[in-house]
Specification:
The chain has 226 residues and is of the alpha+beta class. It has 5 helices and 17 strands.
Length: 226
């Protein structure tokens, strides 16, 4: 399931984060790439232990925690602390699939990458290229969202970042371990949750609400990994 979440961050948060990221000291993104990805990855990345990465990362995590659309879609159990990348001057990232398990820096904990996520900090008109191209069941999906918007998609997806030929593309990327491992099961729960919300608005006194909510939670109980 590929889903976009608009306006995860406020305009003020975006402005402050973008300026801080533009002024930051970046390193070659290949330092964190695996053996195969190293040949496909041509970007800059903020060091994971950089104070700015922790500061903005915490802001992003707070925003995720208060966003009902993200919670309903991802059903998050663990979220890897957000990381940050920068593309410019032809920088790109060729086709790849994210590693299945990621270590949380400085800890012994790991996150299974059920869901991949990209949060855009640059507006589309500020750079050319830089589309996130995701291969899914229905073909290639090209994603280039307004600043402050988030896209989430299955971690199993083959994807790439097209070359940035003008301007600078700033983004955050991270992974989510979901309560429900399988994407098609999360998609069913997402649809059921949406139907419950619709019935609640249109027929708030309907006895079907309690029954549908019960079905939702019983399915979540059955499918949850915890």
């Amino acid at each position: 399931m590929l889903l976009t979440i608009p306006d995860l961050l406020t305009a003020d948060e975006l402005r402050q984060c973008r300026q801080a990221l533009l002024d930051a000291q970046w390193e070659d993104g290949r330092r964190t790439a695996g053996h195969l990805a190293m040949h496909a990855k041509h970007n800059l990345q903020l060091p994971v232990d950089h104070p700015l990465a922790e500061q903005i990362g915490n802001l992003v995590l707070d925003a995720l925690g208060r966003n009902p659309r993200f919670i309903a879609a991802a059903l998050p159990l663990k979220v890897l602390p957000p990381r940050f990348n920068r593309y410019e001057g032809g920088g790109a990232y060729g086709n790849h699939i994210d590693g299945a398990v990621q270590n949380i820096p400085g800890t012994a904990h790991r996150v299974r990458t059920d869901i991949s996520a990209t949060l855009f900090f640059s507006d589309p008109q500020d750079y050319d290229g830089g589309e996130l191209i995701i291969e899914d069941t229905y073909g290639s999906q090209s994603v280039k969202l307004p600043a402050g918007s988030l896209v989430v998609y299955p971690g199993t997806s083959l994807h790439r970042v097209a070359p940035v030929t003008r301007g600078v593309r700033l983004a955050s990327f991270f992974w989510v371990q979901s309560l429900v491992r399988e994407d098609h099961l999360r998609a069913l729960l997402w649809e059921l949750d949406g139907a419950i919300q619709t019935v609640t608005v249109e027929k708030p006194d309907s006895p079907a609400i309690a029954r549908l909510t019960g079905v939702y939670h019983n399915l979540l109980r059955q499918w949850s990994d915890t």
